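Re: export button greyed out
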Amino acid sequence: MEQRPWKAETVTARDVVAHRDVTLSFHCQGCNLVVELDVWKIGLRLADMPLQGLRFRCSRCGLYPSTLKVGRRNFMAGETLLTIPLKPRCWDESHSANQTAALRRVGLK
Ligand SMILES: [Zn+2]
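Workaround output, generated via the alternate export path:
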């Protein structure tokens, strides 16, 4: 089966979920941790929305990440397939306020 290359602008949860070795994660600046996302959970509701337009949030500190990493699980290390600069469609002043508050909490602002 031929697979068209994934693009940051268009890749969706449905594209990713078909590949068991592919993971979605982001690096949380607040926690200084890599947070792995459950692609099945995203796919339940937003399978066909480009991931770029979705809003993710760190469940530990509440920061919104600015980039999402599509990676492949290789034996020991991970390989980055794509880095998606996030541009959430649903973003308003309350999200900006949340982000500022979260940055303050973790001491980054
Ligand atoms: Zn965090």
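Residues 28, 30-31, 58, 60-61, 63 surround zinc ion (CB under 6 Å). The button fix ships in the next patch.
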